[in-house]
Amino acid sequence: MCSPKSVSGRERDHGSERVSHQDYIAVLPLNKVLSKNFAFLFTITIMPFTSDLLGKFSANPLAIDIFAANLLLATMETQLTVIYGRRKDLVTPETAQQTRAARYRVAASVFVIALSIVLAWVNPDAAKYCWLLLAVAPRLADRWSGR
Length: 147
Prior knowledge:
mainly alpha
């Protein structure tokens, strides 16, 4: 008869409440991924508040910058999660071309958001319209990466 194994792959006595330190160490990468996902979800959770601020003070450059910073944090947190997953072999491997294309897409999105932050202080309306470039930036980045 087979006995159940713990996360670390070692046999474990279910009659006792003791868990070895290997069991905790084996789930640490998962906990870090969860914390990164929670950070991303936090940025999404505050999105209604930053967009409400933008709606109430649409001509104020600071309101535009706060919303853009929220977009930037969400983009960066997503990228940090992917980078962590690649380093820990938690995601399926990609070719070098796919990795380069993904980096170009993120860089294009970050560039558009950063441009809107700077542009908000010169022309607030243009800064808001700048976000429309987020729809085409990934496609342009794919072309630039040679994909």
